[in-house]
Amino acid sequence: MVPFLVLLSLLPSTRAVAPLGKYFALEHYRQNGLHQADERGLKANAPTSLRFFTQRQDHFDGANPNTWQQAYYVNDSFWKGPDSGAPIFLCVGGEGPPLTPAVVSDSVHCSNAASWLPETGALMFAVEHRYYGCHNSSACPVSDFDDPPKVSLRFLSSRQALSDLAQFHAFATEEYNLTAENKWVTFGGSYPGMLAGWFRIRFPHLAHASVASSAPVHAKVEMTEYNDWVRYAYTVQSVGGSQECSDAIADGHSMIGKLMNDADGRKRLAELFGLPSAEWLEEKENQKLFAGEGVAYFPSQGNDPSCEEDACNIARICDIMMKTNEDDNVDRLAAVKKAQASWLDKQMKEAEAMLGDFANYWGWQTCTEFGFYQTCDTGSHCPYTQGLDLLSDQLQICAKFNISPDTVAANVAFTNVYYGGLSPVATRVMWPNGEVDPWSQLAVLNTTAPEQPTLWVAGASHHFWTHTPLPTDQTSVQDARTTIRDQVKAWLK
Fold first, then answer.
1. Which of 160-169, 182-191, 269-278, 447-456 has the lowest mean pLDDT?
2. What would the pLDDT profile of 273-330 be if each residue is shown by its tens digit?
3. What are phi and psi for residue 349, nearest 5 degrees?
4. What 8-state DSSP symbol labels residue 184?
5. Number of helices and strands (H, E) in the chain?
6. Neighbour-count burial of 293, counting CB atoms closer than 10 A to its CB (0-12 exposed, 13-18 middle, 19+ buried)
7. CA-to-CA distance for 128 and 187, rounded, in angstroms?
8. Measured CA distances, 107 to 164, 313, 350, 476 (Å)
């Protein structure tokens, strides 16, 4: 999940409504390790395991007989059979990247589960989400995404997705002759992590346990916590941050806010950052595009300590921000932007091409269920130029769907009532979160509920422990995989 800023005007189709911000696609691309596809096994020729089953179009309309073919993947290479009592691992699909056969063997989604198959003899499934990356036009709940959003997206919700999983449970139990002794454990990170946890909460008779990684289960209209935590992330010493670095980033953006208020300042910024012109910065919308989400890319949820590009992570950015040969923090920010030029545009284009209509779908769910609008209000701890990216800007996407702010607020409130927010009632749900991941601030971090252990992964970004293991992974990430495995093993006894 990623921050976004509305850029496009409404056109009469789902495909035209995209809540894209400068780094919307890129953050998602990098948090899922796609910039390291070769190293993380994403391009490996995994055995073909794609299959389909019949799914209801609408689980909540008993008069709707329509069905569609939902995709799922299976890895039965180590399966001991239903009579063995071996468990079932269910990898929950979500907001991208689209699933491939690698999802049940070696991918960013559930590698912590897949790597455990030889030891447990488990059967592993991965169910593709009904909208995100739905396998092809014949394997989606609707046939025409050029219809208006309220037509083409009306079957998109977390509640429909959870019911899909319940329907799949019934199908797989019959198809693979499973018994009550084959206990199901759900795995997922980010939105799939939310679904994984909620499946255990809403269907406790179907899921024995869940590992809900980096799951922001507390819906909130305005998520000021996101950018406030970005600022904190740049103080974390274990990933190369420092208080001085974080302050320098914030100070530079504050200075930029002042420079945009006069002609000489705008001229300096246009020259330093290669902007179209000083006059271009006179427009408030252009100021927002330039500095409202940062004048360069500042990864936190997608921070990768092992990346090698210039200014690609917290440590490399802080190296630049702490240089004393620049005149001030504005010059240092410009140096970060310049350092990223060799790879940023290329990866942004790759990310946008790969994500396709994902932004449209996620925008719909923010309006109808979650909120999660990351703002940079004046007086907040946001490290960017404050007062440019506001809730009113973010809510424009909902206006394009003809959903009012009051309706958004009511939708968000109902989501928390329906699932329990930060106080879900369940057992055998584990909540791991990463220290530099801003989404952790809407996740379950502390609970007195029995059998809901939390795990704080020092220095880690968004569900990094679910990725394919690499020798360069942080010790804390490696330890998290062991802790998660030990907990699930205890629940399966």
1. 447-456
2. 999 999 999 999 999 999 999 999 999 999 999 999 999 999 999 999 998 787 899 9
3. -65, -40
4. E
5. 18, 10
6. buried
7. 13
8. 22, 22, 19, 19
